[in-house]
Fold:
Amino acid sequence: MATLKDVARAAGVSTATVSRALGGTGYVSDEVKHRVMAAVKDLNYQMNGIARSLRNAKTNTIGVLVPDISNPYFMEIIRSFEEDVSSSNYNILVASSAETPEKEQKLVEVFVEKRVDAIVLATCQEDVSRSVAACQQGGVPVLLIDRSAANIDVDTVVEESVSSTYEIVKYLISLGHRKISMINGSAPISTISERERGFRQALEDFKVPLVPEYIQHGEFTQESGYYLGNRLLTLSDPPTAIFCSNNFITVGLMVAANNLKVRIPEDVSVVSFGELLLPELIQPRVTAVIQDPEKVGKIASRILLHRIEDKSLTATERTVLSTYIRLGDSVLPRS
Structure:
């Protein structure tokens, strides 16, 4: 394998001159640069990536940290983001915090130590200031996805949650449902609080009773959806409709209903915030708030690439994407 010294010898210049020619730093005449590049080609010289990053103060890597890498929503964001940044010669490092604040903080610090050029973060914490501070102290731009953070000035790409939850619950109310339940997460993050706010506001505006035992909190997992769904469906006076605040919860609820021989939508109507994986194969097809993770990934890549390339940028961007409701077969009217 050819070395820097081999290239210098073949081009008839010093190793320092070769470094300047390849790194684009310092003056090198066109004639000498031509000789160096010819030697590089003839010798098939591959510049060490670490050495290049040290010279350019860039590693051409971006860290992506999400709470659950198995969630189809985050998988699609990552796919879309990677597709865009790779076309600009950036690679990504992906990690999952497993919804654990301590692990999230440690992984952020690892990314900074690895000298990534930027970090995409879907935090699992209410107070993300410590993670953001670790990035900023290391000179690493950070962008939040699917989460908002109060009193922290960072780039953010989120999808609207309050009004879309309000509208899908309003839809249930318009069909005569008065006993409406919600299965939500319990982590202190914006998506959870916003969806609950939209749910409660719809009930209040249309004078629908808010029954405390109809509001269940757990995790954004299929197991939690199953456990809490089983609890709701076996109440002495069960709800006639259930709003699930994410796709995994919805799947768990549907499994619980199937095991209990509770029919959807004949016995209970079900709506979801978020598309189910392979929805065309699941019967009945669930009425859901539809998100656009591909667009989240593309906007995040545009913002971060711009910020990496232009260090003079100071103003941050906040993008809120709209969602829409796709009607399925999981809801029936109640008289």
